[in-house]
């Protein structure tokens, strides 16, 4: 990889060593894997306006529907945005190193990158998907930039404090709710709200855009501020520390240590995810008491990072196993190198399928069929990404963001060997 420019790096790097190249390929594979989890969760939000409302969609209340929703909640929810956030922090540190090697001014370029992410995120949120994460990343990236001088230990302590305060805050809220007179859940009002949202998404493109604005104003901002935001920032810091200390690069080459990480993280993470899934979805249409749901969220916020680390260790371990690892890496790496393009493409497909932009199928597709569609779309993205990256230097949106970051047109096609 002599004189190569990593497609996810907005700063022109020097030629990486072979070990660094292998490390970046593993990071790309992790990012490509994370795309599946993000798509699986976001597809549920596209497919049903009952997603996250707290009541069951009466149109899909069969045991198989509950089972599929439970499986998605258990395996995917609250885990994969943490993986993306960890990789964002790690890549941030890589970009700083690249800037130092090339003598480039890192801060102004990174600020332009964050501005580009912010603009993309605002357009994405209003036009395609109210649950956009890019705006959050752009805003939190400013804090990460301010804290770029933190030592690995300090960054880790601050990250653990953020995770602990977030989980502890929700745990305290669960305790308070358990000690006050129960408040009757306005089930009829929640059903009416979900049905009105579905009608708006089906009515017209302008109605769909207006509904996204209502979704952001009425609930999405709360989740971003009090759940995803602090947890994402914590994972940014852990990714920064993982690179600064060299720990991830070392562990990634040692299968025995990866096994120890899996044995330490997966049991605790799985236990927390089980509690969360049973409390959030349950096994029937009967909803759990509010204090149980809040307590499960608190437990999940504390344990989901461990499950994320377990996923990381498992994938890194698989990547080292001969032909299987090579094929897995070859499938995932190109998608990870153009993860931003794939993320936005997922939302575009979701908007075309489920809103008035296209087929307006929101609330009309069974959960099992949504999962099947996710697997088909993800497989298609893996194949498309491999073909695209074979001839192009960057994904299409990555190319545009890099042009905005560097304020010059980068190469479009991959140079001939």
What does this structure look like?
With 417 residues, the protein is mostly helical. The protein has one domain. 76% of the residues lie in helices and 0% in strands. It has helices at residues 18-47, 63-75, 80-102, 106-127, 134-146, 152-178, 187-203, 205-245, 247-251, 255-280, 290-319, 322-337, 339-354, 367-391, 396-406. α1 (18-47) runs antiparallel to α14 (367-391), α4 (106-127) packs across α15 and α6 runs antiparallel to α11. The chain starts with 17 loop residues before the first helix and ends in an 11-residue tail after the last helix. 47% of the residues are buried. The model is unreliable at 1-19 (pLDDT under 50).
Brief sketch in words of this structure:
Helix content is 76%, strand content 0%.
The overall strand count is 0
Question: How many separate structural domains?
Answer: 1
Helix count from the secondary structure assignment: 15
Q: What can be said about the biggest beta sheet? A: none
Strand content: under 5%
Give the radius of gyration.
21 Å
Shape field: globular
Secondary-structure-based class equals mainly alpha
C-alpha end-to-end distance: 10 Å
């Amino acid at each position: 990889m002599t004189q190569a420019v990593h497609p996810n790096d907005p700063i022109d790097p020097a030629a990486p060593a072979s070990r660094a190249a292998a490390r970046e390929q593993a990071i790309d594979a992790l990012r490509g894997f994370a795309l599946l989890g993000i798509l699986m969760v976001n597809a549920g939000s596209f497919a049903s306006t009952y997603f996250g409302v707290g009541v069951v969609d009466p149109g899909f209340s069969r045991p198989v529907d509950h089972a599929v929703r439970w499986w998605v909640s258990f395996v995917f929810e609250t885990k994969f945005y943490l993986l993306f956030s960890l990789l964002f922090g790690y890549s941030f540190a890589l970009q700083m190193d690249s800037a130092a090697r090339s003598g480039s001014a890192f801060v102004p370029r990174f600020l332009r990158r964050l501005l580009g992410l912010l603009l993309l995120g605002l357009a994405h949120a209003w036009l395609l998907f109210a649950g956009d994460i890019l705006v959050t990343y752009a805003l939190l990236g400013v804090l990460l930039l301010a804290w770029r001088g933190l030592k690995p230990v300090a960054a880790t302590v601050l990250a653990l404090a953020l995770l602990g305060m977030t989980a502890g805050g929700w745990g305290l809220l669960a305790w308070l709710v358990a000690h006050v007179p129960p408040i009757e859940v306005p089930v009829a009002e929640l059903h009416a709200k979900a049905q009105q949202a579905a009608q708006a998404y089906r009515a017209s493109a302008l109605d769909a855009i207006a509904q996204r604005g209502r979704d952001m104003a009425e609930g999405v901002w709360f989740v971003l501020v009090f759940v995803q935001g602090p947890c994402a920032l914590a994972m940014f810091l852990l990714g920064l520390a993982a690179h600064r200390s060299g720990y991830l690069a070392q562990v990634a080459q040692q299968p025995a240590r990866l096994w120890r990480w899996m044995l330490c993280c997966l049991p605790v993470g799985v236990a927390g995810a089980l509690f969360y899934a049973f409390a959030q979805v349950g096994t029937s249409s009967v909803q759990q008491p509010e204090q149980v749901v809040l307590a499960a969220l608190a437990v999940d916020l504390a344990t989901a990072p461990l499950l994320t680390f377990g996923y990381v260790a498992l994938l890194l371990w698989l990547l080292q196993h001969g032909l299987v690892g090579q094929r897995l890496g070859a499938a995932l790496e190109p998608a990870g190198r153009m993860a931003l393009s794939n993320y936005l493409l997922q939302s575009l497909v979701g908007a075309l399928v489920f809103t008035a932009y296209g087929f307006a199928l929101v609330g009309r597709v069974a959960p099992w069929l949504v999962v099947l569609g996710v697997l088909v779309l993800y497989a298609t993205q893996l194949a498309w990404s491999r073909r695209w990256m074979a001839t192009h230097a960057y994904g299409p949106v990555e190319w545009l963001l890099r042009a905005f970051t560097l304020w010059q047109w980068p190469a479009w096609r991959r140079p001939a060997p």
